[in-house]
Amino acid sequence: MDVAASEFFSEKDKTYDLNFKEENNNGSNKISGDSLKDLYKSFVSEYPIVSIEYPFDQDDWATYAKLTAEIGEQVQIVGDDLLVTNPTRVAKAISDKTCNALLLKVNQIGSVTESIEAVRMSKRARWGVMASHRR
């Protein structure tokens, strides 16, 4: 499940607007990161979800870590924009147990060498690695 949560995250009030696509959105369906985490947990218990990509804003490290701690043994939590294939961010995520999989996007980082390092680090941490390609 690829959520792309930064698309509906409000930096101003640190909430996720579940009605962000509605024309006449009055903001009545904004929820906290913890509430969104609990919603994902309910989805996982009800449906055969094996992977959640980009579940929170790219800088919501704390909520990523909570979700990974709670369901990371049964579900792959993929850091996409959280990690941006950046070895420094991957190292932080490994240390903080923020997620458990890397979405490898060679076009996101400055060099192939950095991409290879991000993959090596992820594999050493026993993470999943998924490759993505865009033109």
Q: What would you call the quaternary organization?
A: single chain
- Kindly state the number of beta strands: 7
How are helices and strands ordered from N to C?
Answer: EEEHEHEHEHE
The low-confidence parts are: none
| Termini Cα gap | 22 Å
The strands making up the biggest β-sheet line up spatially as 4-5-6-7
For the report, how would you describe the main beta sheet? 4 strands, parallel
Number of helices: 4
Fraction of helical residues: 25-40%
Global mean pLDDT: 96
Strand percentage lies at 15-25%
Secondary-structure-based class equals: alpha/beta
CA-based gyration radius: 15 Å
Q: Label the overall shape.
A: globular
Task: Write up what this structure looks like.
The radius of gyration is 15 Å and the shape is globular. The chain has 135 residues and is α/β, with parallel strands linked by helices. It is 36% helix and 16% strand. β5 (76-79), α3 (87-96) and β6 form a beta-alpha-beta unit. Pfam families: Enolase_C. GO terms for molecular function: magnesium ion binding; phosphopyruvate hydratase activity.
How would you summarize the topology of this molecule?
Elements (H helix, E strand, L loop, with lengths): L8 E2 L4 E3 L12 E2 L1 H14 L4 E3 L7 H11 L4 E4 L7 H10 L4 E4 L7 H13 L3 E4 L4
Parallel strand pairs: 4-5, 5-6, 6-7
Antiparallel strand pairs: 1-2, 2-3
Helix pairs in contact: 1-2, 3-4
What structural keywords apply?
135 residues; alpha/beta; 4-stranded parallel sheet; 3-stranded antiparallel sheet; 7 strands; globular; magnesium ion binding; magnesium; Enolase-like_C_sf
What is shown here, in short?
The protein has 135 residues and is an alpha/beta fold. Helices cover 36% and strands 16% of the residues. InterPro entries: Enolase (IPR000941), Enolase-like_C_sf (IPR036849), Enolase_C (IPR020810), Enolase_CS (IPR020809).
